[in-house]
Design a protein that fits this description.
The chain is α+β, with helices and mostly antiparallel strands. Helix content is 60%, strand content 10%. A five-stranded mixed sheet has the order 1-2-3-5-4. The chain is rod-shaped.
Length: 415
Amino acid sequence: MAVRLPRPHRFDVFVAVGGLLGGLLLWAIGLGVRPADEPAVLFDGRWPLLAPLVVMAGSELLRRKAPRAGLLIGTAAIVADTLTQGNLVTLLMYTDVMYAAVLYGPPASARRIPWITGLLTVAGTVVPYAVLRVPEALLIGVAVGVVSFAPASTGLIVRNHREAADAALLRAEQTALLAETDRVQAVTAERSRMARELHDMVANHLSAIAIHSTAALSLDDPATTRQALGVIRENSVAGLAEMRRLIGILRDEGGDHEPAAAPTLDGLGALVEGARANGLDVTLDAAPGENLPAPVELAAYRIVQESLTNALKHASKGPVRVLLARDDDNALRVRVTSPYGDRDTPRAPGSGAGLVGMRERAALLHGTFEAGVVTDTDTDSGPDTDTDTGPAPDSAGGKIWAVRATLPLTEGDLA
């Protein structure tokens, strides 16, 4: 099976070709590492210089794609070069091969090569001096250090800087990704909040308009029609005002579009009166206490508002009871009950998002929310079902539709 060699990098080809041409130029003019009159260790003459030069140029082709193989081949070539008169370009190319082996090689090789070349440098300094006992012997260690340890150390330093730069770039990308994720989550949360506010503020008015317009069209009674049209006008004006305030907040224009103050439980009376004007028999029993957190008051108000809207659309005739009380667990309990609906279709169409919005409001305060059918003799137990479409069209057994929410009042729960 043939082994396919890696294709060399273009820059490595330039380095190899440039080194080979430079070495040939020095060989042509007869310039070597040692003087021409000094005999070589093993191979004398000019022609033996070419073999290490060509092999070293070939190892340069592997400096990036196969750095360890290039270093092994280059080491064999430099050893052969020391047995000849020597070529300066061959030595220079070997330092580049050593540098590339540390820079582009595996992490294990990058750690080991500087240690190995450092030990060789020490050995090349100590051993010759101990044997020859002449100061010139120290130059052997210097030469080994310049050719091997210096480029290996330089490659390690550059590699560490590159890895640090890559790590910093990765951290910056991760930070940007987290920031983008936070932005998307913030936008999503704000859109959900605005959707809840839009639904809670406008749905009540539009439901009343739909119900009373149906009555005005179906009954041939001028007095009833006039009364229905009055209710329609009142709810349309109020709904339009709410829409204008909401659009002003979204556009952030300021001036004439100042954000409306968040509703509080003090406005429950007006809310109940509006429900009564729309035909509901509502009883309010509210003892929430004082100094309630603003988020709790807003959530409780919206839950009651949406529950009355659902009662207007789904409930059959009968009393609707609204209860707010502060319990011993330092939580506000909200309960709204209405007669279980007995009609096949609601009085006004709905989006099915009302219960979802109420549940989200309770969850944001780490509270609980339940909605479903219970019997009128078991109003303190949990609901039998929890759907998102309102009461089912069945009034058997004296059942009622109950909405219950528990909203913690402590700051820890609101965090």
